[in-house]
Amino acid sequence: MQNLNKNIILIVLFSGLINACNFSSQNQLPILGNRVAEEKIIDGKLVVDTIYQTIPAFSLLNQDSIEVNNEMLKGKIYVADFFFTSCPTICPVMKKEMIRVYEEFKGNTQVVILSHTIDPDYDTLALLRDYASRLGSDGKQWMFLRGDRKQVYDLAEKGYYASAMVDSTEPGGFIHSGGFVLVDKLQRVRGIYDGTSTHEVDKLMSDMELLLKEK
Amino acid sequence: MRVIITFLMISILAACMEGPSVNMQQVAHGQQLYETHCANCHQLDGKGIAHIVPPLLGADYIVQNRNLLPKMIRYGMQQRILVNGITYQQKMPSNGKLTDAELTALVNFVEFRFAKSTQLISADSVKLLLNQ
User: What is residue A65's DSSP assignment?
Assistant: First the structure.
């Protein structure tokens, strides 16, 4: 009888441990991108450290002609997307969904939204300023960024795993992915969500809450 | 025989009472077309998007510019418009592949659903308006 009790206690403890593991993995977002193991000497000891891929250095202007770069975003989480104002296909839906994200985290100084135009020829800063105010953005928490076409396309591809290119056969003249990319306080990509899907954007918002709790 | 005659009379009476105003079959066809070609921007509920895409639901512009709708849908729109007191300047793309019959169904759906109109526009009228 004593053995039976001991076994029951062990089973309860073991299942508790498994649950704890599951709980912790459910509450931790994956870190996307390449990783490199690097040897470091800490306190005289050789330690293997994992270096994760981060957003490459960038410098772009926002709709109010203010420079936005990586340095300003340190310690904040942000959502990035790629669009163009004259887009007749997925952008309107993406913007409707981004309004939901903006409204949900409005006033939270740890959250930023960066919408990058992929058509800098047509989307002038003045046009982006008007577009931002039409969407109800304050221009500070949700910014609309413009830069050299090559810089933005490279940033999309190499930094945010998004595609952006000129394609005259596409409606509007460009092809791009409709992803919303979630970036953490250390500028590592932690999730990519379909910006045209209400269900996926709901998931993004709950993941943002998780990410905000990370130190 | 009497049953058949009575049934026929009721059917004819019911058809007459329904009147020629709204053809629900055409409205249903228009709804399918709306969902494919328009709802992405104007949304399923016709409320548009912020101050970027104008609403269709309760839009004064539709009531005041009924005759412009067929051309506007087929050829798109480049200029600014004022809808319910707000100026919109987003370009509306053209829909050149829609046939005259599809355009008629679409206009009738938009007017019936969003402008509460029960007056149908005929395919002939749509043709005339397109050629104006």
Answer: S
CB contact residues (below 8 A), chain A span 56-85, against chain B: 85
- pTM, two decimals, is 0.79
ipTM: 0.71
What tens digit of pLDDT does each residue of A171-192 get?
A: 677 777 889 999 999 999 999 9
Cα B105–B109–B113 angle (5° rounding)? 175
Write out chain B residues lying below 8 Å of A129, CB-based.
none
Q: To which CATH superfamily is domain A54-213 assigned?
A: Glutaredoxin (3.40.30.10)
- For residue B59 the two structure tokens come to 């839009």
| B50: nearest CB among A88, A99, A130 | A99
Whether residue B37 lies inside any domain: the answer is yes
Contacts (Cβ under 8 Å, ≥6 apart) of A176: A82, A83, A84, A118, A156, A162, A163, A164, A165
- Parse chain A into domains and list their residue ranges: 54-213
